[in-house]
Amino acid sequence: LVVLGIETSCDDTAAAVVRGNGEILSQVISSQADLLAQYGGVAPKQAEEAHARVIDKVVQDALDRANLTEKDLSAVAVTIGPGLSLCLRVGVRKARRVAGSFNLPIVGVHHMEAHALVGRLVEQDLSFPFMALLISGGHNIIVLAHKLGQYTQLGTTVDDAIGEAFDKTAKWLGLDLRRSGGPAVEELALEGDANSVKFNVPMKFHKDCNFSYAGLKTQVKLAIEAKEIDAKCPVSSATSEDRRNRADIAASFQRVAVLHLEEKCERAIDWALKLEPSIKHMVVSGGVASNQYVRVRLNNIIENKNLKLVCPPPSLCTDNGVMVAWTGLEHFRVGRYDPPPPETEPDDYMYDLRPRWPLGEEYAEGRSDAR
Ligand code: ATP
Ligand code: FE
């Protein structure tokens, strides 16, 4: 089996070709970093246009680098949600054109399921049931994966995701936004004292597995204002005292943001083991999982509970086509796919897009009113 995966749910246009045994034949990504810096975030219309400009080339490059043509493919997998519908549409249209022209089945993929299942590509003995903590720009969820396509959501964010908090912190600290905010904060935090600024750990007294990052964001903003940090002045031009203040805030923010993950993870593991005592692994994935400090801290918690942490390499934690191709493969194998679409479809064809699409059922004890 060989599957082409296409991903356009947010600001990265990605494609990859993966073999049934998990061999990655190619991986191509085109990111909209310049646009992000210009608009200070993802602007759907601009993002859609940027995807449309590069999608043909990204897919062609993925095939070329794999030394394959469309005729060699078994199926095409594409993210159909959750994400921005304008952006999702570009990937789905392309996937259906390729599938229609070459008579290939098509697999619609859940972006967050893909972030989780890529763990099974990097760790061959990772079998169901397992846990997954998915931490990215738009999501902060902890799930119990019972079997393929069947998930229980133990916790989610009640407001912002941790990646959003990293991105805003980066912006307010005047870090270079031509790369995403997370890595910039992580790098600056290395220079700072993580105990110097006192931030409160969110939801300290909630006995659930939910997350909240909006309050921490506000705390960071206030700390930045108190130190009179000017976001328009880049860190590279800051005085040494100013730079030190920024690094202290970055490090203190990162410590508390991750402490919140640690506390909720611990409780979620206890809950999950009651439901599925045979769990052995916890996957930590999504863009924020490429953070080294996050990895080390979560590894401690997870090992203490006698589980094994599976954290994909950074290139497979942030958005990528490999996870989509792999998730497509998993579903294709068990017969979950759509037949090849017609060779031509009208431009206004109503694609099955799922901009809001929860991953599994919410666990009753997980509701935020359980205190
Ligand atoms: P979602 O998966 O929720 O739809 P997304 O697809 O935009 O969101 P990803 O590409 O999975 O998100 O992750 C991007 C997020 O990860 C950004 O918020 C970015 O700042 C964050 N991130 C990336 N690298 C790091 C890092 N080293 N430290 C902290 N955060 C990071
Ligand atoms: Fe993502």
From TrEMBL:
Cofactor note: Binds 1 divalent metal cation per subunit.
Family: Belongs to the KAE1 / TsaD family.
Keywords: Acyltransferase, Metal-binding, Mitochondrion, Transferase, tRNA processing
GO molecular function: metal ion binding; tRNA N(6)-L-threonylcarbamoyladenine synthase activity
Catalytic activity: L-threonylcarbamoyladenylate + adenosine(37) in tRNA = N(6)-L-threonylcarbamoyladenosine(37) in tRNA + AMP + H(+)
Domain Gcp-like: start-end pairs: 23-326
Domain of life per record: Eukaryota
Record flagged with keyword Cytoplasm: no
Residues of the full protein shown: 86 to 456 of 482
Assembly and binders: Homodimer.
Stated role: Required for the formation of a threonylcarbamoyl group on adenosine at position 37 (t(6)A37) in mitochondrial tRNAs that read codons beginning with adenine. Probably involved in the transfer of the threonylcarbamoyl moiety of threonylcarbamoyl-AMP (TC-AMP) to the N6 group of A37. Involved in mitochondrial genome maintenance.
GO terms for cellular component: mitochondrial inner membrane
Compartment(s): Mitochondrion
Stated name of the protein: Glycoprotease 1
Obligatory cofactor(s): a divalent metal cation
UniProt record, GO biological process: embryo development ending in seed dormancy; tRNA threonylcarbamoyladenosine modification
Membrane spanning residue stretches: none
